[in-house]
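Chapter review: from sequence to fold.
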Amino acid sequence: MAAEQGIRIAEDGVAEVSMTEARAQLTRLIRGVREDGRPGTFTERGERRAYVVTPAMFKRAKGPTETEKAFRDVVERLERLMQDREFAEVLADKDPDLHDILEHGAFHILL
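The token string follows.
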């Protein structure tokens, strides 16, 4: 995304295009966001007004989904249960694999 094409890269790495040039530069800006992995922005009188981001960036910005929150809650509850020695022993007898996963904190890899 070269400056002579109406898109400039700001100091923070965001590609900027003015609103007056946006229509002519839209395809190039979107391709740059997708290919370079850096956000783009539309400016008006030098001020950023809107951003163009990849779906992955948007998903991260929105935060965890309800499913991800529920999963984290289950993991936290299981970890608290593992603090109870009797529970941990029963679990070790009934499901040694799950006990090992909880004992070694392997669920945190998924979080």
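Two observations follow directly from the output. The longest strand covers residues 47-52. The first helix runs from residue 19 to 36.
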